[in-house]
Every structure is written in C-alpha cells, then in structure tokens.
Description:
The complex is a heterodimer.
Chain A: H1 17-27, E1 34-36, H2 37-44, H3 48-60, E2 64-71, E3 74-81, H4 83-101, H5 108-119, H6 133-142
Antiparallel strand pairs in A: 1-3, 2-3
Helix pairs in contact in A: 1-3
Chain B: H1 10-15, H2 22-40, H3 44-66, H4 74-99, E1 103-104, H5 106-134, H6 139-164, H7 168-184, H8 191-219
Helix pairs in contact in B: 3-4, 3-8, 5-6, 6-7, 6-8, 7-8
Amino acid sequence: xxxxxxxxxxxxxxxxxxxxxxxxxxxxxxxxxxxxxxxxxxxxxxxxxxxxxxxxxxxxxxxxxxxxxxxxxxxxxxxxxxxxxxxxxxxxxxxxxxxxxxxxxxxxxxxxxxxxxxxxxxxxxxxxxxxxxxxxxxxxxxxxx
Amino acid sequence: xxxxxxxxxxxxxxxxxxxxxxxxxxxxxxxxxxxxxxxxxxxxxxxxxxxxxxxxxxxxxxxxxxxxxxxxxxxxxxxxxxxxxxxxxxxxxxxxxxxxxxxxxxxxxxxxxxxxxxxxxxxxxxxxxxxxxxxxxxxxxxxxxxxxxxxxxxxxxxxxxxxxxxxxxxxxxxxxxxxxxxxxxxxxxxxxxxxxxxxxxxxxxxxxxxxxxxxxxxxx
Lengths: 145, 220
C-alpha cells in the first residue's frame, strides 16, 4: 500500500470514533442494502443528534447516501454506504494495519499526529490511490475553516 | 484530527477531542464489525435446537401414543406437540423478522421469499394429504405419508437455504432429512415416529452444535 518510508495516510473523514462506528455498522450490512435512521442509531449505539451530525459529514464526503421516503404516510430516512464509502473503510483499515506494521509508527501519538499533516494536502500524499473518491473526500474536508 | 482544523465546530471538537491511535482504531473496527454482524445474524443454533426438541419429543410422544399398549394418551401428546411446534415456529420466524427490522434491500426480499416458502409448501402438503384421506387412504398409511412427506419437505427447504447461503451444515441437514423422511416409511406405523424422533430430532440437534460453537467463539 505504501512506498518505503512513507507512513500511510489515515482518512480524516473516517478517523473519528463516531464516524468510524457508523461506517463499520453500514459496511456490515449486505451490499446494496439500506437501513433506517432509528435502526442505524440502535446498531451504532448513538444518540439521534450525534448520529445526524456525523451522517452529514459522511454524506458530504460521498461515503453514504441519505434518502427520504414515505411509508404509510410517515417519512422514513434511509442510509446506505456508497461504493466509495466501502472502499474508504477498506483503505482505512489497510492503512491502520500498515501503520501498525511499521516499527515505532504505532507509538500512541506519533502515528495519529504523523498522519494528520499529510491529510491536509489533497493528492500527492496518497501515492497508491487512483484519482477518485478518497481524494475528493479529503479536499471536501479541507475546505473547512 | 488536526486536519479538520481546530475549531471547525464545537460538536466536532467535543466528539473528536481524543484522536484514536491506530491500534485503538483497528480494535474499534474489529470489535464493532463483530458486534454489529452478530446483532444482524440469525441465531441458527436456537432455531435448530427448537426444532430438534420439537421433533425428538413430539414424534417420541406420537410413537408412545401409537403403540399397541399406548404409554401416553393423545390428549397429552397432542397439545405438547402443538406447543413445541409453535415455539419452534415462533423462534424460526421471529428471529429473521426482528433482525431485518429497518433494513431494506435484496437481503430483505430474500428473507421474505424464503420464509413464505414454508407456509406455501406445508399448505400444499396439507391439501395433498387431505385429498388422499378424502380418496380413502387408510389411517395407517396416512400417518406414514403425512410425516414422511413433511420430513422430505423440510429437507428440501433446508437444501434451499443451504444453497442460498453456501452453508454446508444446513445443506447436509437437508440431505439428512430427505434420507430420514423417506426411510421412515419402511419402519411402518408407529415405528416411523421413532425414526423421525431419533434421526430427525437428533439430526437437528447435531446440526445445531457447530452453530452454537461458532457463536460462542465469536462472542469471546
């Protein structure tokens, strides 16, 4: 995954406990399935407000789709992981394993902070990533003040 | 989370105050995946055990109620068989319905279609047997045909679910029920009940064991 002496980049969209929790829960569903907001809340063990906040960030990054429908006149919100989201989680997990495999890099704070500065620059820091979603996601996040 | 920029918004800071170390993150990913997968999975061991007990005890009672000198009255055997079958049916249908709650997509359709296959198959079987009785099939033969055809139908449905999930244990159980059901006819009445009780009920219970074992290992 990484060139020698290059620490893998941790996707900042996923590298946060609540969003990681949600992404993993969505990835555990069969591909192409979608889940209602309350059931996801239950699976991820989060409050409604907290879940909504993090879903927005995942949606902005293109990792999930949020659709609204009516069932028996009641509005229902469905959430589904996109292909980009599924890949982002796979890449993220692979990056974690790479980090842990590099001697010293798994050291508590070093790796986490070592990854962060590189997150700030969109593409050149990610040698193996073909141009596409993860880079877009990083750019989206970087737009924040 | 420095990449997010300090002070992106207060809620983010609150949530992400302590960035995860890679090790913590990997543990979180694996634990969450296991936990969520387990809460989405149907407890197959519970379903097979419920049917195992229902068959072992139910057909066992049917046997002892049908011998030349009945050791059990049908007045006792009948209700017990009914309650055990109902409990097993509730376990089998309740679990997938509860797990699929709030989830839409192909997996839900598969679950609904497969679950519907059971009442459809047994409905057809009931009509078929009622037709045979109507045509004057003797009681002794009715008992052979009804129980054997039910076992064979169960077998076919387990072959189906085994094929669907590429699950060799369920597939093997299906094949075993085909053997048990068809062989039970050769034991005659009421020996057929003893075969279905021991080989059928026993088959369910033996098939339940690896699922229970896998579940316990995953929970550790």
